[in-house]
Amino acid sequence: MSKLYVIGGPGEGQQFDLGDETTYIGRSSENDIQIRDGYVSRRHLKVIKRDGKTFIRDLESKNGAIVDGKRIQVGVEVEVPEGLPIVIGMSVICVGEACTRYVKGRQDLIDMAREIYQDGMLLAEDRPMTGRKNKELMQKVSEALARPGNLNDILEKMADYIFEILKRIDRVIIILIDPETGAVSKVVSRTGRATEKGAARYSQEVVERV
């Protein structure tokens, strides 16, 4: 039996069995699979298994479903290969064992997305305006995680999203830390809309404090 994995968002780490033919996914407990995400519609997505292939259909959801960086057309069945991420609301889901390989390849980004989600939820409660911007950013981060491409391309796209949503900032530095060694494994530094050349500048003291 095929499984559906939640690889990003509030339910990250969950996995569910898919039905042999049809599975309904949404926020409501009346679905076959419940995704506890406020940006997922009550009945959001239909998963169809047919002739050894997997198809999905957007059930007129409010925020749609994104596959391979593109929003799918409402009511139209779209084939989804095993391991290809799907964005619904602020969650990233995936069908099949290939999802586990995807997670291993992008664990740093998934961890970062989780932190952005958790921080955003706190800001949404304390400061509504800032919270709305953070929720928009979280949606964009989920979309970036589901896009094909190498790590650097995805980090660059995330930096673009930050500039797009948080318009008052003039500099973004994304730093990935190896959890085992504590060493900096990747840095993307941006000023305005241009990618900086050469080594990125950042405070090692701040990194150690975080």
Tell me about this structure.
By secondary structure, the chain is an alpha+beta fold. The chain folds into two domains: 3-104, Tumour Suppressor Smad4, CATH 2.60.200.20; 106-209, no CATH class. It has five helices and 14 strands. The chain has helices spanning 98-105, 107-126, 128-146, 151-165, 204-209; strands at residues 3-8, 15-17, 22-26, 33-34, 45-50, 53-58, 65-67, 70-71, 78-79, 86-88, 91-95, 171-177, 184-191, 194-195. Strand 10 (86-88) and strand 11 (91-95) form a beta hairpin. The radius of gyration is 18 Å and the shape is globular.
List keywords for this structure.
2 domains, alpha+beta, about 210 residues, Tumour Suppressor Smad4, five-stranded mixed beta sheet, single chain, globular, six-stranded antiparallel beta sheet
Helix and strand topology:
Layout: E1 3-8, E2 15-17, E3 22-26, E4 33-34, E5 45-50, E6 53-58, E7 65-67, E8 70-71, E9 78-79, E10 86-88, E11 91-95, H1 98-105, H2 107-126, H3 128-146, H4 151-165, E12 171-177, E13 184-191, E14 194-195, H5 204-209
Parallel strand pairs: 3-4
Antiparallel strand pairs: 1-2, 1-11, 3-5, 5-6, 6-9, 7-8, 7-10, 10-11, 12-13, 13-14
